Automatic annotation (TrEMBL):
<keyword id="KW-0472">Membrane</keyword>
<dbReference type="Pfam" id="PF01494">
    <property type="entry name" value="FAD_binding_3"/>
</dbReference>
<keyword id="KW-1133">Transmembrane helix</keyword>
<dbReference type="InterPro" id="IPR036188">
    <property type="entry name" value="FAD/NAD-bd_sf"/>
</dbReference>
<feature type="transmembrane region" description="Helical">
    <location>
        <begin position="12"/>
        <end position="29"/>
    </location>
</feature>
<dbReference type="GO" id="GO:0004497">
    <property type="term" value="F:monooxygenase activity"/>
</dbReference>
<dbReference type="GO" id="GO:0071949">
    <property type="term" value="F:FAD binding"/>
</dbReference>
<keyword id="KW-0812">Transmembrane</keyword>
<feature type="domain" description="FAD-binding">
    <location>
        <begin position="11"/>
        <end position="322"/>
    </location>
</feature>
<protein>
    <submittedName>
        <fullName>NAD(P)-binding protein</fullName>
    </submittedName>
</protein>
<keyword id="KW-0274">FAD</keyword>
<keyword id="KW-0560">Oxidoreductase</keyword>
<dbReference type="InterPro" id="IPR002938">
    <property type="entry name" value="FAD-bd"/>
</dbReference>
<dbReference type="InterPro" id="IPR050493">
    <property type="entry name" value="FAD-dep_Monooxygenase_BioMet"/>
</dbReference>
<keyword id="KW-0503">Monooxygenase</keyword>
<keyword id="KW-0285">Flavoprotein</keyword>
């Protein structure tokens, strides 16, 4: 990877080369701006398995000229189907082909390393400076630079903190803490042949929702791989114990699940797991010339599958406003661009973060409330998009373009 030239001051330093950081760097570079990404790891990469990317993200990938490649690398499933995890009955579905017609762009599922690599190649082509082994430990006192772990200071017109859940910049401006959900995720990606006898749906994104647990399945990489995510509430986390989320709790959590789910559990990776944290929404992301972006700004619980999607939207919005606030000489009025970003993104992402929490609660209901949920979902018209229009439509650039939220139905 390229080494940064300390004498050349870029327009933007981006802290963190995850999906959010690379998306922002690409968006800015496409507008002719010089972006430098500082990544703490020794290589750019992503850990984990599958990722769902909804039309509000594939619309942006199309604008970047990356959608065809994304389609080739991923899968465009025909349906998204929700089943009850106990009795395996179908609760509701989205017709994803009809959804593509409605929003103009597909709902894709991809290996997250494929999406990350796609953005990385885009950054390389666009001339982004990509610097590895470069951990940022703090911000320069005047807010127009960062301090690397080796003590070096790098300056730019603007600093974009895309350094994830444990963001250094967020810590210095906001000082809040991640919120534990007491839920943990196990993942697994395997050759499709390994699951063919398990009554799986190769052409759908499937979620089995059950009391305090759920199980997600979909095919990846042109259908040659299969992705599974098993998520459950940890009794040990609820009891305040430190050793929570271990494989014994995985097995117990799904003991009462239907056969389709039971068959999937032994295939989960057992050597690593992801404890699920989010943060409370904050209404300020811009502090002078420093802007939070991606999980640094709005880490969600994953139930709406919008975390990476929002991060990519953030970068697109920021770059659009940088371009709108650029003079004929090429200088960007960053204060105006950042103010426009601040005006529109926090409210959208607040909605996603809070709805993701509620959506997770709905998935994990037990007893009579589970029965009422199931009845409501079974009654839903499969062409009713009122619950997703606010998410999957075009990304708002101004507050007035933000669509109305859906009206929740009380259980
Ligand atoms: C189980 C699970 C399923 C999910 N499913 C989906 C889904 O289907 N769809 C979806 O859209 N989202 C999904 N998400 C959410 C999504 O993965 C995240 O929201 C997204 O990856 C956040 O990207 P980011 O670049 O903001 O942060 P990160 O991915 O955390 O990247 C931060 C980067 O910054 C680097 N970094 C950190 N600190 C520093 C530092 N001080 N100096 C330099 N570099 C630093 C890190 O090494 C890393 O490369 C899911 C999450 C989970 C846990």
């Amino acid at each position: 990877m390229s080494q940064s030239d300390p004498d050349a001051i870029p327009d933007a330093i981006i802290v963190g080369g995850g999906i959010g950081g690379l998306g922002a760097a690409l968006a800015l570079a496409r507008k002719g701006l010089r972006a430098r990404v500082l990544e703490q790891a020794s290589t750019f990469g992503e850990v984990g398995a599958g990722l769902q990317i909804a039309p509000n993200c594939t619309r942006i990938l199309a604008e970047y000229g990356l959608l065809d490649e994304a389609r080739e690398l991923g899968v465009a499933p025909a349906d998204m189907i929700m089943f009850d995890a106990l009795d395996a009955s179908e609760l509701t579905r989205l017709d994803l082909r009809d959804l593509e017609r409605r929003y103009g762009f597909p709902y894709l599922v991809m290996h997250r390393s494929d999406l990350h690599a796609l953005l990385l190649r885009g950054c390389e082509r666009a001339g982004v400076e990509l610097v590895t082994d470069s951990r940022v430990d703090g911000l320069a006192g005047d807010g127009t630079g960062v301090i690397r772990a080796d003590g070096g200071v790098e300056r730019a017109d603007v600093v974009i903190a895309a350094d994830g859940l444990h963001s250094v910049a967020r810590a210095s401006f906001v000082g809040d803490a991640p919120v534990s959900s007491s839920y943990v995720a196990y993942r697994g990606a395997m050759p499709i042949e390994d699951v063919r006898g398990n009554d799986v749906h190769e052409d759908a994104v499937v979620v089995y929702v059950g009391p305090r647990c759920h199980f997600v399945q979909y095919a990846l990489r042109g259908g040659s791989m299969f992705n599974q995510v098993a998520v459950f509430e940890s009794p040990r986390a609820k009891a305040g114990q430190a050793d929570w989320g271990l494989p014994d709790e995985l097995d117990q959590a799904f003991e009462g699940a239907c056969e389709q789910v039971q068959r999937g559990i032994p295939l989960m990776w057992r050597d690593r797991f992801w404890r699920m944290f989010d943060r409370d929404p904050i209404d300020r992301w811009v502090f002078g010339r420093v802007a939070l972006l991606g999980d640094a700004a709005h880490p969600p619980l994953q139930y709406l599958a919008q975390g990476a999607v929002m991060a990519i939207e953030d970068g697109w919005v920021l770059a659009e406003h940088a371009a709108r606030n650029r003079s004929a000489s090429g200088a960007v009025d960053w204060d105006a661009a950042l103010a426009a970003y601040q005006a529109v993104r926090p409210e959208h992402c607040r909605r996603v973060q809070t709805t993701a929490r509620d959506w997770g609660d709905l998935w994990h209901l037990d007893g009579p409330r589970r029965d009422r949920r199931n009845a409501l979902l079974r009654d839903r018209d499969v062409r009713d998009y009122s619950f997703v229009d606010w998410l999957y439509g075009p990304t708002a650039l101004e507050p007035g373009q933000e669509p109305e939220m859906f009206k929740p139905i009380p259980l």
